[in-house]
Amino acid sequence: MIRQYYEDADAGFDSTIDVGVILTIRWVAIIGQGAALLFTHLFLQLDLPLLPALFVISLSVAVNLWQIMQSPQSRQRHRHNSFALGFDVVQLAALLYLTGGLLNPFSVMILAPVVVSAAVLRRKSTLMLIGLVAASVSFLAFFNHPLAWQAMVELPPYYLAGVWMALILSSCFLGGYTWWVASNARRLSTALTEARLAIAEEQQVRALGSLATAAAHKLGSPLNTITVIGHELARDISPDDPIYEDIQLLRAEIERCRVILSELDVVQGRRAIAEEPPVPVTLLVNEVVYQRLGTDAINFVVTNSGTDDLEIPLVKQRPEWVHALENLLQNAKQFAVREVNIHIDWISDDIRIEIRDDGPGFSASILAQAGQPWNSSRKGTGGHRGLGLFIARSLLESIGGSVQFGNAAGGGGLVELWVPRSAL
Is residue 86 predicted with pLDDT exceeding 80? Predict the structure, then answer.
């Protein structure tokens, strides 16, 4: 289960690396390093190994220019960016070595590459970078070029040990916390993208079905004409004619085309050419229940009533609406003990669907954040991530609908959703 969590968190990183941001951060760091070095040397007049320090900064400039000259595909690779951030740690460590080691107030800047790595790279790369920071900090604790002011101030050894420990613990905490926040955001984005792709695929399949129906409809008339001409040719030409066999082959191929078009016609069910016709909302709900969810072990009871209108409203099978309804019903089915009740009613402007199960209901902690991401009593078990209700709410809101979560008076979960009739 823990392994699956980390695999999910590391998924989809290739599309999240913005190399331009990393390059910009390094340019800002280079400018800051140069300005701090010159200010310390010229205005504070501290004795610094200026030329070696400027050489170290120039190496960072060279690495930035090298990254710019790489192809976009190379710059997107994790190994490429891991190496660049590892170089940043070594470069900062070298600069700190020349300017007082861990007693340099800017020693905390060695944590910056860890934060960047945790935000854009995989967990393994971040852990390796934290290890590199720990090794560099440990080296600087014992070896460095002391500044002149350090000889005049006698600091207890505990202070240096405290700085060493603070930097190592901070790298672990900041790296872990940043990676956790960023990975949650990435997994949420991945889940929403998957839902949008599923909807887009369903729309494309329906469009392809409509196109196939249109083709079958338009080709039917000319094919009938060709069939009639083929029959007349076969009737007028005697078996001894040299083209008699060609005519028979032509008739066989015409019949084959008729069979293919009839199969297309049967599969598509003679749907409308432009789009599927609207269906009664009760029929749509029943289709979702019995065709998409199944009724094994759990009994679904569907009832309906209406106000203002006597007729059952007709709705289109919009993917956002169907997908959201399926998610909510699937959630109710998973928590129900024996039965899920679905009640549909409508007024002149809205369609309302109430979903009630006979399960334990929503706990207070879950209900307080119902519809928010990563909010689930089963998160991390059986592949559940706590995103089903969030995706359903987002899809309904995208077409102008809304959803409310609560507990029924007699026990069990209660979900009410409203969708404007104009959106369907």
Answer: yes
